[in-house]
Amino acid sequence: MALISYFLPKSVLFKLDPEAAHDLTIAALARFQNTPLACLWSAQRVQDPVELAGITFPNRVGMAAGLDKNGRVIDGLGAMGFGFVEVGTVTPKPQPGNPKPRMFRLPEANALINRLGFNNEGLDSFLANVKRARFRQQGGILGLNIGKNAVTPIENAVDDYLIGLEGVFPHADYITVNISSPNTKNLRALQSDEALDALLGQLQERRQQLIKQHGRSVPMFVKIAPDLDETQVGVIAATLQKNGIDGVIATNTTISREAVQGLAHADEMGGLSGAPVLEASNQVIRQLRAALGPRYPIIGVGGVMSAADAQAKRDAGADLVQIYTGLIYAGPQLVQDCARALKG
After folding, report:
1. Does the pTM of the predicted model rise above 0.85?
2. Active-site residue flag, 125
3. 153 exposed, middle or buried (CB, 10 Å; 0-12, 13-18, 19+)?
4. Out of 5, 180, 181, 306, which one is annotated catalytic?
5. Which of 132, 137, 144, 236 is the most exposed place for a label (fewest CB within 10 A)?
6. What tens digit of pLDDT does each residue of 62-96 get?
């Protein structure tokens, strides 16, 4: 929401309902991206190329999925200096998400709680927006994040992921399989060993067919939750490697409220993001790095509110970092600050 602080002060935006402020932000970026007014928030991209999963990322800082679920403002976000932008989560069919209100600020903790529930316009609208974006042509890396519809029974979840995979494959630099949102019923059950193995096996089989069909390979990452113990992380790591998955994104939001007890809105259902999830996320990253070895690609996300937080992610074992809630509280300058801190 601080993204349009050049148009409206953050103090004004923070008086609005959080989702209304979010919608206003997206609308402004959509209206002014690729116009002369984009110079108001544009920043030169820090050049710090790094190769990961066969992709050369311009720098180590990316936009996390969730801010732009419909891929409407890829260019507006990219202009802030991100090396890569991830959009979605997209589901095969449009869905409204959970009832409102469903987003809450915890400013004392530099945090948000959301229970949006994969609200999005569906795959067709998403792909139309992706095709219009210029970010990839300008050297940016685009990640497309796929999920399942809420009405799809969990036992049929693979069908939705296969539809998503096939749809986004020609238009993505990498694809993220989101199995870790706490806001779609039973979704996190897909992180269990047998369910994850079955899902990833079928996705990998279809991906190999798509590689032959399109004549290009697109890396596939899996996004996991912070609410896992070391044994669970170890099982996930082994399953990722067994199924030839190219990398892991750690982590999504947390259902824990330990760090925000007593604060207004702390008891709201949903996923907690921002500063309180930093250490939980970093702990999962450390465990993943220990289990996966030094070369396996890990993208760290969760609680990056400053350049020092980005460096802490790298120190924990992440190759790249993503930000979301930090952008809302700190504004677009955070992108360059983090990219400079991680350069070299």
Report:
1. yes
2. no
3. exposed
4. 181
5. 137
6. 999 999 999 999 999 999 999 999 999 999 999 99
